[in-house]
Amino acid sequence: MLEIRTCAYMSKQDMFADLTSQTAALLGAERDPIANAANAAALIFHVLPDLNWAGFYILRGGELVLGPFQGKPACVRIPAGRGVCGAAVAQKEAILVEDVHAFPGHIACDAASRSELVVPLLRSGIPVGVIDLDSPVIGRFDADDRIGIEALAAVYLAASDPFPA
């Protein structure tokens, strides 16, 4: 059984090191990518402050399809290249948006979201999905968050088989 530790008293770097360690322990020997994404999304949502959505989108046939998440209901399909999630897939790099209303082409799945961090999931340099975090706070995410979620994405990918077709 995993006891979720909140990390409010730690530095952001230490918090992400702890979150990454908790994620590795939670995923353990499980290889199913959907089960692992569900547990990773729940852990992220409950550990990181000021989130209103945390989850995965899976790339299928040129579209990002909603995967496991925590938060309000979300957009089900996002074309690759559209919105913050689609841009992260197209650019094959993380995108941090301080104010989503200033991002051209932002797709508003939840009107309460004000900032967003999207980290692509890359297998051998090929995008297979994204981890998407939303916050109702403008400027919620910074470079430390990007680095921390990129490390968590690497743990997730190493612990999981490829998504089923």
Tally of discrete structural domains:
1
Report how far the terminal alpha carbons are from each other. 31 Å
Give the CA-based shape.
Answer: globular
What name does CATH use for the topology?
Beta-Lactamase
- What's the β-strand tally? 6
Outline the low-pLDDT stretches.
Answer: none
What is the mean pLDDT?
92
Strand content: 25-35%
Strand order of the largest sheet: 3-2-1-6-5-4
CATH architecture: 2-Layer Sandwich
The helix/strand series, from N terminus to C terminus, equals HHEEEHEEEH
Structural class: alpha+beta
Would you state the CATH class? Alpha Beta
The CATH superfamily is GAF domain
What percent of the residues sit in helical stretches (DSSP H or I)?
25-40%
Largest sheet, described in full? 6 strands, antiparallel
Cα-based radius of gyration, to the nearest Å:
15 Å
Number of helices: 4
Protein name: GAF domain-containing protein
Family: Belongs to the free Met sulfoxide reductase family.
GO molecular function, one term: L-methionine-(R)-S-oxide reductase activity
Domain GAF: 47-154
List keywords for this structure.
single chain, alpha+beta, Beta-Lactamase
Describe the structure.
With 165 residues, the protein is of the alpha+beta class. The protein has one domain (12-159): 2-Layer Sandwich (Beta-Lactamase), CATH 3.30.450.40. Helices cover 35% and strands 25% of the residues. It has 4 helices and 6 strands; from the N terminus they run ααβββαβββα. The chain has helices at 12-27, 33-47, 83-91, 143-159; strands at 53-60, 63-71, 77-79, 95-97, 115-123, 126-135. The chain has a 6-stranded antiparallel β-sheet with strand order 3-2-1-6-5-4, with helices on both faces. A hairpin with a 2-residue loop joins β5 and β6 (126-135). α1 runs antiparallel to α2 (33-47). The longest helix has 17 residues, at 143-159. The chain is globular and about 40 Å long. The chain starts with 11 loop residues before the first helix and ends in a 6-residue tail after the last helix.
